[in-house]
Amino acid sequence: QAAANTGTINHTTGTIVITNSAGTGTLVVGQAGKGTYTLAGGTVTVDQLFVTNNLSGSYTNSILVLNSGTLNVLNSMTISALGNFNVGNSGTVNWNILGGTNLLATPGRINLSGNASGRALVTVSGPGTLWSNSASTFYIGGAGHGSELLISDQAHVISPASTLGDTGFSSNRVTVTGSNTIWDTGALTVGFRANVQNKLFITN
């Protein structure tokens, strides 16, 4: 929290829960100092997630690394990244965004699967749940295969451009389901470089 200080967590097993009755329990990664949170297993459940609020200061490298495990955001999140943001680097990440207004800001890409061995299963669900990202392109299946994005129960996802399947021989899926559920994207490509089974379902 303090300027010029650093803090690092490597989370490999077990559960961390940060909630309260007001729905304002917050995990902050990087405030005045430099913070790194690496999720490599286990579960994190938070009301609110705030990653890097010091992009204009000297400690600009505070980051959230999602290698594997489960991340549940119950109320809102703000993530500011300086480059590509990868979800699933060395295993499977289950990321559930279940309420409130959520922002992921990056000048680079968002990759659901950060490399060939990574996989991301992302769920955005619930009335009033909004996930907005400012990435150059949102890749479902950035470097690996088997990633999925599920938008359901009146949730709303916004991205400037989206690509479903970016690498050869990948198999990825997006499902938009339920009345008043919205995926609001600019340019949409289904099966960019991939050869098999990239699927988009819009149902119910």
Q: What is the topological layout?
A:
Elements: E1 6-11, E2 15-18, E3 26-29, E4 34-51, E5 63-80, E6 85-87, E7 92-97, E8 101-105, E9 109-112, E10 119-125, E11 130-133, E12 137-140, E13 148-152, E14 156-164, E15 173-177, E16 182-190, E17 199-203
Parallel strand pairs: 1-4, 2-4, 3-4, 4-5, 5-7, 5-8, 6-9, 7-10, 8-11, 9-12, 10-13, 11-14, 12-14, 13-15, 14-16, 15-17
List keywords for this structure.
17 strands; 204 residues; mainly beta
Describe this structure in words.
With 204 residues, this protein is mainly β. The chain has no helices and 17 strands.
| Number of DSSP E strands | 17
Output the helix-strand order: EEEEEEEEEEEEEEEEE
Q: What is the helical fraction, as a range of percent?
A: under 10%
Query: Distance between termini?
Result: 46 Å
Low-pLDDT residue spans: none
Percentage of residues in strands: over 45%
Summarize the structure.
The protein has 204 residues and is mainly beta.
